[in-house]
Amino acid sequence: MEPIRDFAQLTSHLKSLHSRKRIAVVCANDSHTEYAVTRALEEGIADFLMIGDSAILEKYPALRQHPGHVEMIHLEDPDEAAREAVRIAREGDADILMKGIINTDNLLHAILDKEKGLLPKGKVLTHLAVMEIPTYHKLLFFSDAAVIPRPTLQQRIEMIWYAIHACRHFGIEQPRIALTHCTEKVSPKFPHSLDYVNIVELAEAGEFGNVIIDGPLDVRTSCEQESGNIKGIVSPINGDADVLIFPNIESGNTFYKSVSLFARGEMAGLLQGPLCPVVLPSRSDSGLSKYYSIAMACLTAKKY
Amino acid sequence: MEPIRDFAQLTSHLKSLHSRKRIAVVCANDSHTEYAVTRALEEGIADFLMIGDSAILEKYPALRQHPGHVEMIHLEDPDEAAREAVRIAREGDADILMKGIINTDNLLHAILDKEKGLLPKGKVLTHLAVMEIPTYHKLLFFSDAAVIPRPTLQQRIEMIWYAIHACRHFGIEQPRIALTHCTEKVSPKFPHSLDYVNIVELAEAGEFGNVIIDGPLDVRTSCEQESGNIKGIVSPINGDADVLIFPNIESGNTFYKSVSLFARGEMAGLLQGPLCPVVLPSRSDSGLSKYYSIAMACLTAKKY
Q: Beta partners for B74?
């Protein structure tokens, strides 16, 4: 498989599979979600199970134009809708779970329920996103902009594994993973830089398979060869990173918000850890971003 | 004075003052510093005192074309050059100090010397930068991408004061200062968000004079009105921030590196706290960025 280098290629690839994923959407009562769902229906990459109040189909008549591909479960109470969607995903009747305008905490509550939830015991819950940036030559994955404030070494190792699995789905044979920091110096003042040393050693010992992992590297040196050259930094990443692992949630979130706003980057993002991909967009994400997240979920969901 | 909205206006404004600042440069033996110094000489905004080995004028003959505006002090040892430059700045014979290719730590050592240095006792040392971003409608100040890993409340208050003073020099009457975070929620999980509440209260009580301070706000909501509208967030910043204060050095540095690379932002930056402005560029900064830093220093240096 050729690597998928932008979101247009992602859609083309999914269409070429002629296999629709089934997505349970909780409370899809907003126009950005409607755009994303309608687009996915038009591209023919997914079927939808809309769980929520009965106003959805009336409000968004476009959804009625795809008979056989949209079902509706009427549940007026958002928490009840969340629990039902999680139950359906848990039992395998949906491949993907997606948040509409229900409050994130309410949906997470249902996902994290120890008895009836979607997160296997001991699994690390984190967020992985991928951005198409007009000024970068390929897709750029990054983690974590949304869930873990300050990852431990073990959590960071799991974040890297999730990123590697996603890269494989995107056809990237040897993902280049940069462990980012302000500088290239390791210092006890920054405990994550010490963790980076451990991770690079694990990677060099073959622990992560066919990947290139290096750090600490700053964002510029990770993504631009010239920066490394000027600073005299020799890294196997060589300014060609596929994945940026951020030191903490503040830096990951700053990357996402700054690059989406100032460099017109479009993002797809998924929760990692649950039994199935979970699309958990934030309210200010564009309709396009929500559609790309659906597409990323369709690509990385297990069942075909 | 009309607000200075981009770096071209900054140069025009400085030229209109017909007053040259005097800048001591330590070890200017690199082409990016040469570009910056030559450009400042051509614009007529500064005179230079080059402190370092005797090769500088031979290596960069353009500097000889401005007789009366470039002096040279020959000191082969970089540490000695740093101490001499600091002494000259301390005694008022230079208005601005600038780093060439001497190691940052070596110059900082001279600046921070308790007896003979440039930092008054009790003053907070931090970094303030300003970026011209093609997709933003005005200059955007930010702090701290380079010095303080995790600012305390008191340090953050000083950072805000430095930013306010710089904004005044740029003609911004009522600076809009956003205290950035991942979300708009205050949470004890993120101690800086609690500090933000204190700072907003101080600002509302008039402590900082004629400014607008709000937070926590994410970077998008700080700089784009539409994001706030979608999320239903009412903030006096209104997506029109002049200044972003970052929670920690990792997020500030990520902002700087990401926006300069992916959104083609050009940056000027200065150390804050010392008796005179200190231009302390990093090795990978462009010649243009070093020139803009000189211009920012000329504008904010006290003496005219």
A: B52
Residues B182 and B239 placed together within one structural domain of the fold: yes
Residues A62, A92 share a domain: yes
**Is residue B220 assigned to a domain?**
yes
Q: Could you tell me if B228 and B120 are in contact, meaning their C-beta atoms sit under 8 angstroms apart?
A: no
- What pLDDT, in 10s, does the model give residues B86-142? 999 999 999 999 999 888 889 999 999 999 999 999 999 999 999 999 999 999 999
Q: Please, how many CA atoms are within 13 Å of residue B209, restricted to the half-sphere of its CB?
A: 11
Of residues B219, B262, B265, nearest to A136 (C-beta): B262
B-chain residues near A223 (CB < 8 A): 261-262
Residues in B touching A284 (Cβ below 8 Å): 220-221, 227, 230-231
Same domain, B115 and B134: no
For the stretch B260-286, pLDDT in tens is 999 999 999 999 999 999 999 987 788
Q: In this complex, which of A246, A250, A259 lies closest to B262 when CB atoms are compared?
A: A259
Q: For A33-61, how does the pLDDT look when each residue is reduced to its tens digit (9 = 90+)?
A: 999 999 999 999 999 999 998 777 777 78
Q: What's the CA gap between B215 and B201, in Å, rounded?
A: 11
3-state secondary structure B23-47: EEEECCCCHHHHHHHHHHHHHCCEE
Q: Answer whether A246 sits within 8 Å of B250, measured CB to CB.
A: yes
Residues B38 and B86 in one domain: yes
Q: How far apart are the first and last CA of chain A?
A: 16
Domain count for chain B: 2
In a domain, B267, yes or no: no
Give the domain extent around B114. 7-119+275-300
Helix (H, G, I), strand (E, B) or coil at B99: strand
Count of Cβ atoms closer than 10 Å to residue B274 Cβ = 21
Q: Do B254 and A220 touch (CB under 8 A)?
A: no
Q: What is the predicted pLDDT for the residue at A46?
A: 97
> Both B49 and B92 in a single domain?
yes
Residue B302 to chain A, least CA–CA distance (Å): 31
User: Tell me, what CATH number does B61's domain have?
Assistant: 3.40.50.10950
pLDDT digits (tens, 9 = 90+) for A216-273: 999 999 999 998 888 888 999 999 999 999 999 999 999 999 999 999 999 999 999 9
Of A149, A219, A252, which has the smallest distance from its Cβ to B261's Cβ?
A: A219
Same domain, B137 and B248: yes
Domain of A295, CATH number, reads: 3.40.718.10
Euclidean distance between CA atoms A141 and B53, whole angstroms: 46
- Read off the pLDDT of residues A188-227 as tens digits, 9 standing for 90 and up: 999 999 999 999 999 999 999 999 999 999 999 999 999 8
Domain for residue B57, yes or no? yes
Based on the domain organization, do A180 and A290 belong to the same domain?
no
CA distance A75 to chain B (A): 25
> Do the chains contact at A190 and B149, CB–CB below 8 Å?
yes
First to last CA, chain B: 16
B18-46 tens-digit pLDDT = 999 999 999 988 888 999 999 999 999 99
Pair (B248, B291) in one structural domain: no
pTM for the complete prediction?
0.95
Residue with token string 């951005």: A131
